[in-house]
Amino acid sequence: MTSFTFFGGKGGVGKTTVSSAYAYKCANAGLETLIVSTDPAHSTGDVFDQEFGDDPQQVEGVEGLSAMEIDPEEEVEEHLQDVRRRMGEQVSAGIVNEIDRQIELAHQTPGAYEAALFDRFIRVMRDHDGYDRVVFDTSPTGGTLRLLSLPEYLGDWVDRLVEKRAQSIDLFEKAAIGEREARRRAEDDPIIAHLRERKEKFEFAKEALQTDASFHLVLNPDELSVRETGRAIDQLSEYGLDVSGLVVNRVTPEPDDDENGRGATYLRKRCANERERIREARESLSPPVEATIESRVSEVKGDVLAEVAAELDIPME
After folding, report:
1. Which of 219, 224, 286, 310 could staple 229 via S-S, CB 3.0–4.6 A?
2. Element holding 135 (H helix, E strand)
3. Over 50: is that where the pLDDT of 66 sits?
């Protein structure tokens, strides 16, 4: 049984609806389930009519289901504060103010969000004891791909940092004391120890994503959504991550045969276009279409959420 299930896709396709419905289905099948929103535009709470925070909270009225919404801004701040603390322990008091200034600048730099969210992401995966299934409602495709690619790239990057740090220690010691026994060795250096700890996290995440996770992409039956989904499949494959299946969401229901008004004519043409896009997705994209979810008139929550869950033919094993 895969422990982690990810739902991704372009913005606005209905990832939260699908991931929430799948989590609901898992819980009703007897799996202790946690749904985690990593999308900055949280809406999991809207689905369940309940506010969620950074810690898992039981979903009211659904036995075996908990939810949490990770606050990206809070994670960035916590991540940078940890960097500030660690750096402050390693440098002289004279440059602490400069470190603080650089930390403040780093808050808005590209990659700060991904690095902070990745740390929280790993903590959730490591601390999932007590849950049979953890369902991730991810940010739009670009952010998800950057997040999932981190283990592939950061492992090698840390190796290079460790090598450079060890060289700098060696050169510093030789310049300071000549050929006498070094006061510091790379093996005892706290910065190198921290870098190696980071690499171990990346290795854990990489293995978990490749061996204990399944990936599902949500799309709408339109040309742009199908094309972007194809690009996402290719990019995930480059990171050694295979997409298990596709969920086509917001499919327009067809009018009854005896309906012939202007609205029915419009719906038939729209449905024909959508069916063509679904056919294209089935034929041109490698993962199977696991479900097609029709649009609902009312909000997807409560009994309607249960209906959507029943339409999801996604394996739970």
Report:
1. 219
2. strand 133-137
3. yes
What is the rounded distance in angstroms from the CA atom of residue 137 to the CA atom of residue 38? 6
Q: pTM for the complete prediction?
A: 0.79
Phi-psi label, residue 111: left if phi above 0, alpha if psi -120 to 50, beta otherwise = left
The token duo for 32 is 């202790």
Non-local (6+) Cβ contacts of 96 within 8 A are 88
Nearest-angstrom CA–CA distance, 203 and 97: 34
What is the rounded distance in angstroms from the CA atom of residue 308 to the CA atom of residue 22?
9
Is residue 182 very low, low, confident or very high in pLDDT (cuts 50, 70, 90)?
very low
Q: Are residues 39 and 15 in contact, defined by beta-carbon separation less than 8 angstroms?
A: yes
Tell me the pairing of strands 57-58 and 65-69: antiparallel
Rounded to 5, what percent of the chain is helix, strand, coil?
55, 15, 30
Element holding 78 (H helix, E strand): helix 72-90
* 254 token code pair: 């067809």
pLDDT (tens digit per residue) in 299-315: 888 889 999 999 998 87
Q: Are strands 133-137 and 33-37 parallel, antiparallel or unpaired?
A: parallel
Residues whose CB is less than 8 angstroms from the CB of residue 131 and which lie 6 or more positions away in sequence, other chains included: 3, 32, 33, 34, 66
**What are the phi and psi torsion angles at 246 (to 5°)?**
-120, 145
